[in-house]
């Protein structure tokens, strides 16, 4: 993650969009974080980002977590076992 003053981002937005494909770019105003530039290596990644920010999706996740805490529903581990699914490989830093 890098921090860049707003005036630098305004002067060279294309460069910072390319950088944001690899790491988040924190945009500062007068030295204080004011926003974040998020780039997408894959054009489809924007969909996941929008879904994660959607209040309806966030509410559904909160409901599912609450159900699990109350002993209702099925955990991801139990679901994998029930359907003989394997967990995806862990992400690695390259």
Question: What keywords describe this structure?
Answer:
alpha+beta; YefM-like fold; 48% helix; 16% strand; 3 strands; 94 residues; elongated
Q: Helix/strand/pairing class, anyone? A: alpha+beta
Tell me the name of the CATH class of the domain at 2-37.
Alpha Beta
Distance linking N and C termini: 16 Å
Predict the CATH topology of the domain at 2-37. Answer: YefM-like fold
Strand order of the largest sheet: 1-2-3
Instruction: Give the C-alpha Rg.
Output: 19 Å
What spatial form do the alpha-carbon principal axes imply? elongated
Summarize the amount of helix as a percent range: 40-55%
Describe, in short, the structure shown:
This protein has 94 residues and is α+β, with helices and mostly antiparallel strands.
If you had to describe this structure to a student in words, what would you say it looks like?
By secondary structure, this protein is an alpha+beta fold. Among the domains are: 2-37, YefM-like fold; 54-82, no CATH class. 48% of the residues lie in helices and 16% in strands. The protein is built from five helices and three strands. It has helices at residues 6-11, 13-20, 45-53, 55-69, 76-82; strands spanning 2-5, 25-29, 32-37. The protein has a three-stranded mixed sheet with strand order 1-2-3.
């Amino acid at each position: 993650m890098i921090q860049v003053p707003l005036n630098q981002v305004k002067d060279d937005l294309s460069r910072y969009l390319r950088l944001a494909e690899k790491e988040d770019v924190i945009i500062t105003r007068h030295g204080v974080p004011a926003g974040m530039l998020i780039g997408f290596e894959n054009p489809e990644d924007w969909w996941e980002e929008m879904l994660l920010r959607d209040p309806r999706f966030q509410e559904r996740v909160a409901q599912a977590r609450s159900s699990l805490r109350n002993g209702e529903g099925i955990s991801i581990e139990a679901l994998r076992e029930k359907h003989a699914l394997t967990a995806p490989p862990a992400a690695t830093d390259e």
